[in-house]
Amino acid sequence: MKQTALFDIHKQAGARIIPFAGFNMPVEYTGIIDEHLTVRNAVGVFDVSHMGEIWVSGTSAIPFLQKVTSNDINALYDGRVQYSCFTNGKGGIVDDLLVYRMNRDRYLLVVNASNTGKDWEWLNSQNKEGAILENASDSISQLAVQGPLSINTLQPLTPESLSDIKYYTFRINEFAGVPDVIISATGYTGSGGFELYFPNRYAESIWKKVMQSGMEYGIKPIGLAARDTLRLEMGYCLYGNDIDDTTSPIEAGLGWITKFADGKYFIDRDLLLKQKQEGVARKLSGFRMIDKGIPRQHYPIADRNGERIGEVTSGTISPMLNAGIGMGYIKTPMTKFGTDIFIEIRNKLLKAVVVQLPFYKK
Question: What tens digit of pLDDT does each residue of 188-242 get?
């Protein structure tokens, strides 16, 4: 198992460590609910250095990325970030990712830790354009500082005006005495905040300075468990749960990152365009429990007659709503908001209702 440059700090902080995506990672420190509420109400810091980072450079970068990603690379400008996915040639998703445009000929792809090796092989196998690819995953650390008080915590540590970094943009500047740190605002929690990318050798120094700066705001380290409950309250997809090689972006509600503009020819374009035009048999939908119960991945979803109509992909008890929430693929006729569905939990059909995402609204 790999470990991030902050592994010793997590152990000293009393984190519960589990294997995740090939890494020993902190899953919780003070408890999921406490950490969840810390991010919603104040500020928390996640070590997400297990994520993969792949550079794509050269004059062929744009045509290559236009081919392998579903979103429109031409919509990017310097300092802009884009959410996208790699389609696999069979209508499924290799991975979902973020694309950072440094300049016209240089891009940073941030991919899921569990897929870094697979993504690297996929990109190289598709690189007929001659783009320059570099897998920098093992040399870059990443922190996600999230919550409404994140800007108060981080602003004293950088000359960059953080309030000028709008959603899905980034800047490169000095941070905590370290030059050329990428500071972005993409978020995976729905509570605002920033991501910091820097070489591994600065990880402990930056972590300690962030924690010290945030002390007056109640900052805490946050584990992967609370990261999951936070993203689920927002209805954000998690690769391996809600999307994978067998799910299409149209089924997953990711049509907004699947662009069919003139001149945008990408892998699976025709197949996905057909799905968009003709519709799909199932859709990823959010639901809220009416009966008391915790929906879990792979639990069957049924109609009122007990006929199976889908399967749960993600589920939990929402700390903010104090109710069971989940997402799952459901037969399209049953996905209208307000439709009653039933989750099979311990051989009982418990009532739920299809709702609009996100579950949690500030």
Answer: 999 999 999 999 999 999 999 999 999 999 999 999 999 999 999 999 999 999 9
Residues 145 and 17 grouped into a single domain: yes
* Structural domain range at position 21: 7-51+138-233
pTM exceeds cut of 0.70: yes
Neighbours of 35 (CB within 10 A): 24
119 in a structural domain: no
d(CA 36, CA 150): 14
Quote the CA–CA distance of 174 and 150 in Å, as a whole number. 17
pLDDT of residue 90: 98
pLDDT in tens, 59-83: 999 999 999 999 999 999 999 999 9
> Does the residue 224 lie in any domain?
yes
Do 315 and 196 share a structural domain?
A: no
Instruction: Identify which of 146, 73, 89, 144 has the alpha carbon closest to the alpha carbon of residue 122.
Output: 89
Number of domains in the chain: 2
In one-letter notation, the amino acid at residue 257 is I
- Measured CA to CA, the distance from residue 34 to residue 163 in angstroms comes to 27
Q: What is the DSSP letter of 255?
A: G
Other CB atoms within a 10 A radius of the CB of residue 128 amount to 10
The per-residue b/e assignment along 93-110, b for 16 or more CB within 10 angstroms, e otherwise, is bbbbbbbbbbeeeebbbb
Closest CA to 67 of 119, 147, 127, 5: 127
Whether residue 85 contacts residue 69, with contact meaning beta carbons closer than 8 Å, is answered with yes
